[in-house]
Amino acid sequence: MSKLSLFMSYALLAVFAQNLVLTGGIGASRLIRAVRKPRELLQYTILLTFFTVLSQLLVYPVNLLIKDKEYVKFVRPISVVLCITAVYLLTWLITARFLPRLYERIEKQLTHCAFNGIAAGVPIITAMRGYPLWHTVAFSIGASLGFMLAALLVSEGLRRVDNAELPYSFVGIPASLIYIGILSLAFAGISGAQIF
Q1: Helix (H, G, I), strand (E, B), or coil: what is residue 181?
Q2: 169: Cα within 13 Å, side-chain hemisphere
Q3: What residues have CB less than 8 Å from 95, skipping those under 6 apart?
Q4: HSE-CB of 81 using CA atoms within 13 angstroms
Q5: What is the per-residue pLDDT for 11?
Q6: Could you state, in order of their start, the residue ranges of all structural domains in the chain?
Q7: What was the pLDDT predicted at 195?
Q8: Using CB atoms within 10 A of its CB, is residue 22 exposed (0-12), middle (13-18) or buried (19+)?
Q9: Cα(15)–Cα(4) distance, rounded to whole angstroms?
């Protein structure tokens, strides 16, 4: 029963953190929109790194306090969401009030970067593995840079998928999702993950 409750709590966190496929409607996620403009992708990656690192720095002391408690699997996802929300609200308030030019540039990406699966998943992964603080910060930066690399690969693939010879039923989102699925399998194979 404890594995089921752990699964459900992480599933709940994932629902609040990011809807991977249906963000923005009918499969057009912010990532797919961002990769079409390299400048927007760089800005997105910088914001994502900012949120991931700051959230990690807030979550780390909380994880130290609750790591030996029996209720850790319930409190950890909630603490991650609360810390990310705190970083998001502070960033939103400071930029909107004191840095309006910056806020105008990042306004559309702010929510997507803060509540991205990377910003929510990295603190949970590092806490479960028991990494020290410097390792968690490095892992956060590496995860954000890995996102950028994956986004660039998706960008290149989407350019190649825009093909006039492609059957009509695969044009657009279906071809994109198939390509992203194959790319995910390749990453899983490289990382040594066992699929079956």
Answers
A1: helix
A2: 0
A3: 102, 103, 106, 110
A4: 15
A5: 47
A6: 34-161
A7: 53
A8: exposed
A9: 16
At a CB cut-off of 8 Å and minimum separation 6, what does 103 contact?
95, 96
pTM of the full structure? 0.70
The type of residue at 26 is I
Looking at residue 105, its amino acid is R
Burial class (CB in 10 A: 0-12, 13-18, 19+), 127: buried
Q: What is the 3-state secondary structure (H, E, C) of 17-74?
A: HCCCCCCCCCCCCHHHHHCCCHHHHHHHHHHHHHHHHHHHHHHHHHHHHHCCCCCHHH
Which residues make Cβ contacts (< 8 Å) with residue 83, sequence separation at least 6?
55, 58, 59, 62, 123
Predicted local confidence at residue 95, as pLDDT: 93
What secondary structure letter does DSSP report for 99? -
Strands (E) across 61-168 are located at none
How many angstroms separate the most distant Cα atoms in the chain? 58
pLDDT in tens, 127-140: 888 888 888 888 88
pLDDT along the chain (196 residues), means of 10: 53 42 40 66 86 89 80 82 90 92 87 80 82 85 81 75 76 76 72 58
